[in-house]
Amino acid sequence: MNTCAIETQGLSKRYHRVTALSDCSIKVPEGRISALVGPNGAGKTTLLRLLAGLAAPTGGSALVLGGTPRQDPSFLSEVGFLAQEIPLYRRFSAQDHIHVGAHMNRRWDAESVRTRLTGLNIPLDRPVGKLSGGQRAQVALALTLAKQPRVLLLDEPVAALDPLARRHFLGTLTAAVAEGGGELTVVLSSHLITDLERVSDHMILLSASRVQLCGDTDEMLAEHKLLVGPRKDTAALERMHKVVHTVSTPRQARLLVRLNGPVFDPAYEAEDVSLEDLVLGYMGADAPAAYAHLAAVGEDQ
Amino acid sequence: MSFLVWRQYRSQAAFAALVLAVFGAVLIITGLKMASQWHTILSACTASGTCASLHEGQTSLGSVVGHDFAILSMLGPAVFGMLVGAPLLAREYEARTMDFAWAQSVTRTRWLLVKVGWVLLAAAVWGGVLAELVTWWSGPRNAAFQNWFQPNYFDQQGIVPIGYSVFATALGIAAGALFRRTLPAVAIVVGGFIGMRVWLSQDVRAHYMTPVTTYFGVAGNFNPPAGSLQVGSGMTGPNGQVLAQNFNSNVGVFNGVPISSLPHACQSLASQASMSAQNAANRCLAAAGYHSYASYQPASRYWAFQGIETGIYLAVALLLVAVTFYVVRHRDA
Q1: How far is B290 from A71, CA to CA, in rounded Å?
Q2: To the nearest whole angstrom, how far is the Cα of B68 from the nearest Cα of chain A?
Q3: Which of A40, A132, A197, B268 has the fewest CB atoms found within 10 Å of its own CB?
Q4: Which ipTM did the prediction report?
């Protein structure tokens, strides 16, 4: 599992004067489910569209399965992309989409779509516009999987789903990865950290158009601690460790720290972090001052 | 890929076929009636030897309904451009369905090529069927009045509607690629189609080829041969220069030319209203080397003009398709 399914070097995307993604360097090993997290507008969609070859970078480079994302059937057939809006032709039935897919792909496992959708009691002959949001997302995922891609890029596919539909969707996804036998790599963006925690084992944290973290989720969690202690100068601490985010109240300070060895200061008590702590910490580090103030007020109560 | 196009457009194709069927039925029924009417008129005018002087304003030929449908056919290309051309890309962008199409293993270029290719072919068939129906229907009127080269008649018959239809559709497609919204694309089709059609048919068409010009005496009378398209008429001066005309004023104008631009010797005669003075003014001008002229495009050029106009519209359509391809390939999805 040493090979990288996705590797980018300084990938950047500017739209006129707006920087959507800046100097993004990530590696996603083959066979992983990577959680792409970050606040709205952090560049998650831009990154996924660059990887899918739907947009051209303004700087840097990307390698997906060893090749630059491009308009070429041999590349396109290896990559499955599901956009945020769950794009399907509303007047087409699932069956119609299956036929269309069969005509537009080299590899196409029509039977797998039928099996998955019948298993979920989703009617194959009804226009997808008349299905529920959860059913539509399932149809779209099943169609994306029918391509038998080796890299699957999913842009907030569960955002609009209720908890049960979300669970079904992610169940389908993890089952597909298990069937893939370590060959299928998934990048999944979402705001629902608890969902991501359950299905993913790798993470990419984007904030303010930049990569904050990228790597194995367990390693990332182990590298970070929440230090709780008195409110004091952190210069000594910052000589060795990186303080990601601080929430201070008059009585105490809570520091999210990326460790670079053990913490010797006995004034602090170290707590393990959850994925949510990590995400919120890095997101908060870039949040406008107004948000930091709100966080501090919350701590006070 | 073609399957996707067929699946997307099959209901619209059925609807278009239905419209053409209704259109054809009306034109065939009224056309057959008109044919027998023409038969009667023709035997009557042959007997009296007046066939050459049949005039649209005096001889009633064809029903109002048939006539209305023939005029209606001129809207056909624009309707196709609005309903099929404009949404072709704009609708995909609006519903984000291009993200489905482009996530398959087909390149954007190929997707566009197949889609645009089939739809433009359909546009050509649509324009062609409308034109052929109207051309057939107009047969008796063309024979009686020889007016097929005149504005509006020229525009409904032959092959030009194919060019109009392909142009309107390509315009809608290109506008959809640029704006990514259906409504602005439809507006561009309406504005662009009307603008291009009016401009070409009013200002440009008469000059596709150098017109034939006939000179005749100032007081003479000349009618271009039947079936030709009149381009211009007026007076030329002693050096053959065309005299500027002024139709806006009745004062100080002689034969459409301001009296002040006539030779001094003839000016006082020209400004008098009596018939004898006017005749004398004509003789005066003829003696000074003035002539009347009429320029026209002879009827034999009808098909050349049909070909040129169709070619212009197809060339512009090709340019619009090129723009579309450039935009879709180079702009991010």
Answers
A1: 70
A2: 36
A3: A40
A4: 0.86
Residue A77 touches partner B, C-beta closer than 8 Å: yes
What string of pLDDT tens digits covers the 301 residues of chain A?
Answer: 458 999 999 999 998 888 999 999 999 999 999 999 988 888 999 999 999 999 999 999 999 999 999 999 999 999 999 999 999 999 999 999 999 999 999 999 999 999 999 999 999 999 999 999 989 999 999 999 999 999 999 999 888 788 888 888 899 899 989 988 889 999 999 988 888 988 999 999 998 888 989 999 999 999 999 999 888 888 888 888 888 888 888 888 888 999 888 877 888 888 999 998 888 888 876 655 555 554 444 443 3
Instruction: Give the number of C-alpha atoms closer than 13 A to the C-alpha of residue B288, restricted to the C-beta side.
Output: 19
Residue among B97, B105, B329 whose CB faces A73 most closely: B105
| Residues A178 and A223 both lie in one domain | no
B109 interfacial to chain A (CB closer than 8 Å):
yes
* Residues A160, A227 share a domain: no
Helix (H, G, I), strand (E, B) or coil at B322: helix
B100 touches chain A (CB under 8 A): yes
Note whether residue A213 is domain-resident: no
Q: In angstroms, rounded to a whole number, what is the distance separating the alpha carbons of residues B132 and A23?
A: 61
Task: Tell me the C-alpha distance between B158 and A83, whole Å.
Answer: 48
Residues A25 and A162 in one domain: yes
Of A208, A228, A257, the position where a domain reaches its end is A208
Are A259 and A295 found together in one domain?
yes
Q: Which two tokens stand for residue B163?
A: 């060019």
DSSP character at residue B151: T
Tell me how far the alpha carbon of residue A82 is from its chain's centroid: 13
Domain that holds residue A54: 4-208
Among A208, A236, A265, where does a domain finish?
A: A208
Q: Are residues A157 and A224 in the same domain?
A: no
